[in-house]
Specification:
- Among the domains are: 2-103, Baseplate protein-like domain - beta roll fold (Phage tail proteins - horseshoe like beta roll fold, Roll), CATH 2.30.300.10; 189-210 and 585-648, Phage tail proteins - horseshoe like beta roll fold; 254-472, Jelly Rolls; 682-773, Immunoglobulins (Immunoglobulin-like, Sandwich), CATH 2.60.40.10.
- The strands form 9 sheets. It has a 16-stranded antiparallel beta sheet that branches.
- It has 777 residues and is mostly beta strands.
- The longest helix is centred in the last third of the chain and has 13 residues, at 568-580.
- The protein contains 5 helices and 56 strands.
């Protein structure tokens, strides 16, 4: 072993091998998805000895040039007085060094837009590049599976984020000599076979545990549940209307708030062959372009998920002269008008400019003419019928990286509202005037992710002061005056040109300037909230385990902390992944041997490597994943080291999920679903159901679909008890699309689910909740 230390004093790396205390063997500890730690004791002998400093660079290698450890001294070396030598007192210095990635932990993780639809490797590369651009070699960082969503917490270190990303991908990372390695666990595998002459039988210790589970309840996060539609009517003086349920994600969350002190490269990529885009005086300045679509653009670094309610404010813009281009475009492909799902097209008009909406590559709606000196705030609102557009991803030993469970895309229609708030600096009243809506309509089967380009300049001449992306209250407010069509009411702050706001009371409050008129119909659509839960059973295991007096059920409740299930369908996929490894014996153990007798082909062993055990004498034939490696350098001259390798199967220690005991109180009376029925146990929700007519004694409902033969619509007074065996709160069962139900009070609730003719009958997973609050007369 050769120990080299660079004290960063200008002398370069110095050989400290001769100073190692031979009575205290150096030790290297490698742990899965954590920094490696090297401990060594040095004797201060001779005038050439320099006490290593905090932050010194430490390198440990073998005579053949193989690196064993590289890192940095992370604490001030401690010392012990050993007595007097021939000339001077003698000291022993104890050093602790951590592997290379600790330098990344010294950098603050910036608050950034969540990673959406990025591969695990791509996310890790981005975090590394953001922290220390160009310092680490990331060529061995594999992409692996897509992360539907990953939010970076600035309070966590780089290594904590790396560990979480590795957990989500069932991967391992390590850093050595400035290179970052990120790969699926088990990429490198070694055979540990007792028939091999180098096998050390006394070095193998195995532990087994009975962790059989065949009836599993998984608890996730709070999720969007009932499709709620509240119906109100204006009386000419009421500003506030109380919602029937608390909307899911009822509070605003700012995802990006950009004010242009600089053009932040972690947020934006400029494609700018003519140098038309710059920052000056706290504003983004665009002065020209190439004249062609898509050749000059400012593109956001992350895709935007079109789920729930997203509000994109593209800035307070002023036009310096006649302009041509697209501002605030969402693109389903390349940044060109042809792939623009929604945006604001700007074209020259009589020395000024005109603004018109773009939808799916086509110009549509009214044209707004700009005026010199006026400011224009561009806003895009996207209101999706689904909050999440991709299922969470889960792994197990039988579904490793590349063959994950879940991850399916979620189809959804989205309502797109494009609005412009025109401000005349000479007229303060325009600051709180309502915005002009250029488009308000539905984009059917919209993509789940879009590229966002703030600027697509053919020949733009404008200045932009800010850009903001907000995840708003997940509610759509629409109203209609008597005899008129419904229009979307803009939610948000009054200063942003909005007309109303959603609060956590929960309530809908209009601003005085936009007071609903007498008999104005008001509809509020949103998703209710509840705990994501799923209960999954392995019927074959239950049957095989059953015996006299034992029904074979082995049940447990687990809370999946990471990757967090965001919906009940995610809970099902997490349960399937857990059950993959819950029907085999859970084995773990350690193996101790000298470096000369490591498994065939192993020059070294790292956490994340696989050990394929074939030890019939101990009834052990399974694959274990290395979790920790302790290396004792006991023979420095001969380079003989003693290894202690800790390993475990996924059944013993899950590699791709962080679990904790679940709260049983929230999981009672949950319907059990056999593994083989997952994905086919529910009918589609009746998202198109609406109240179409009402009077003082009855309500007419359109279910939104024509029930198939043998199918029907079940209506209840409350969101409980669905099924043919319970008539306690039943309003009725109907086999037609439109039907009439009783009305008993001014305020009335109806809950609808679809059912089929199977036995037992299948139902929709979530109800449609129709809440009526109309006067009786």
């Amino acid at each position: 072993m050769k120990l080299t230390i660079d004290n960063l004093d200008g002398r370069g790396p110095q050989d400290y091998t001769a100073f190692i205390d031979s009575e205290r063997a150096p030790c290297l500890v490698r742990r899965l998805n954590k920094p490696a730690e090297f401990q060594v004791s040095l004797l201060a002998i001779g005038p050439d000895f320099v006490v290593p400093v905090h932050g010194a660079r430490v390198m440990v290698g073998r005579a053949n040039g193989q690196d064993v450890f590289t890192g940095y001294v992370t604490t001030v070396p401690s010392y012990v007085f050993l007595g007097y030598g021939q000339e001077n007192p003698t000291y022993r210095y104890d050093l602790v060094a951590s592997s290379d990635e600790v330098v990344l932990d010294r950098k603050a993780i910036r608050r950034r837009f969540p990673f959406v639809g990025r591969s695990a490797g791509n996310a890790l590369r981005q975090l590394t590049q953001d922290a220390m651009p160009g310092i680490f070699d990331t060529s061995r960082v594999q992409d692996m599976d897509t992360l539907p969503f990953y939010a970076c917490d600035p309070q966590k270190t780089w290594t904590q984020h790396a560990a979480e990303i590795a957990l989500c991908a069932r991967a391992s990372y390590r850093a050595m000599n400035g290179q970052l390695v990120f790969e699926p666990v088990g990429t490198t595998a070694y055979a540990l076979d007792e028939a091999n002459e180098t096998f050390s039988p006394d070095g193998l210790k195995l532990v087994s545990a009975d962790k059989l589970v065949n009836d599993l309840t998984v608890i996730g996060l709070m999720e969007p549940q009932a499709h709620v539609k509240d119906y109100f009517v204006g009386d000419g003086y009421s500003l506030k209307f109380y919602l029937s349920q608390a909307p899911f994600m009822g509070s605003n969350k700012v995802l990006l708030d950009e004010e242009y002190a600089i053009l932040d490269p972690t947020h934006w990529t400029a494609i700018d062959p003519k140098s038309a885009i710059s920052v000056s005086g706290g504003k983004l300045v665009v002065a020209g372009g190439t004249g062609n679509d898509g050749e000059t653009s400012l593109v956001f670094s992350d895709e935007v998920e079109l789920g729930g309610t997203i509000v994109l404010q593209h800035g307070d813009a002023t036009f310096d002269s006649a302009s041509s281009g697209v501002i605030g475009g969402l693109y389903a492909g390349p940044v060109t008008i042809g792939s623009c799902l929604a945006g604001f097209n700007v074209t020259p008009a009589s020395g000024q400019s005109q603004i018109q909406a773009i939808l799916s590559g086509n110009l549509t709606g009214p044209v707004m003419n700009t005026q010199a000196g006026h400011r224009y705030v561009f806003t895009t609102r996207v209101l999706s019928t689904e909050v999440y557009r991709q299922q969470q991803v889960y792994h197990s030993s039988t579904h490793p990286a590349g063959s994950e469970r879940g991850g399916a895309l979620v189809a959804a229609d989205v309502r797109v509202v494009l609005e412009v708030h025109e401000i005349d600096p000479a007229n303060p009243a325009t600051m709180v005037a309502a915005s002009t809506v250029l488009y308000d309509g539905i984009a059917a089967n919209a993509p789940g992710l879009c590229m966002y380009a703030l600027i697509n300049a053919r020949d733009l001449h404008c200045q932009v002061t800010f850009t903001r992306i907000t995840r708003a209250a997940n509610a759509e407010v629409r109203s209609a005056l008597p005899g008129s069509n419904f229009r979307t009411r803009l939610t948000g702050s009054l200063a942003e040109g909005a007309e109303c706001k959603i609060s956590t009371e929960p309530s809908l409050t209009f601003y005085p300037q936009t007071l609903p008129a007498p008999n104005e119909l008001i509809n509020v659509h949103y998703r209710g909230t509840g705990r994501a839960l799923a209960r999954v059973t392995n019927v074959a295991s239950i049957s095989a385990t059953a015996s006299a007096g034992d029904d074979g059920v082995r049940a447990t409740v687990k809370n999946v902390k990471s990757p967090s299930p965001r919906r009940a369908s995610d809970c099902e996929q997490a349960a399937l992944a857990i059950l993959d490894d819950a029907n085999v014996c859970a084995l773990a153990g350690t193996y101790e041997t000298w470096s000369d007798f490591l498994p065939a082909g192993a020059a070294d062993i790292y956490p994340g490597d696989a050990l394929d055990l074939n030890v019939p004498s101990q009834n052990a034939e399974f694959r274990g994943i290395v979790r920790q490696v302790d290396v004792q350098f006991e023979d420095l001259d001969g380079e003989h080291s003693r290894y202690k390798i800790a390993f475990a199967s996924d059944a013993a220690e899950p590699l791709a999920m962080e679990l904790s005991a679940g709260l049983v109180s929230v999981a009672l009376d949950l319907m059990a679903v056999p593994e083989e029925s997952i994905g086919a146990e529910f009918l589609p929700d009746l998202t198109g159901a609406e109240i179409t007519q009402t009077n003082s004694t009855s309500v007419t409902i359109d279910a939104g679909i024509d029930p198939a033969s043998g199918y029907g619509i079940e209506v209840r007074w409350s969101d409980t008890g669905f099924g043919p065996a319970n008539d306690r709160n039943l309003v009725g069962r109907f086999t037609t699309r439109s039907f009439t139900v009783p009305r008993l009070a001014r305020t009335q609730d109806y809950f609808l689910r679809q059912f089929d003719n199977s036995s037992p009958a299948k139902y929709s997973r979530y109800s449609v909740a129709l809440h009526l609050d109309y006067p009786l007369s």
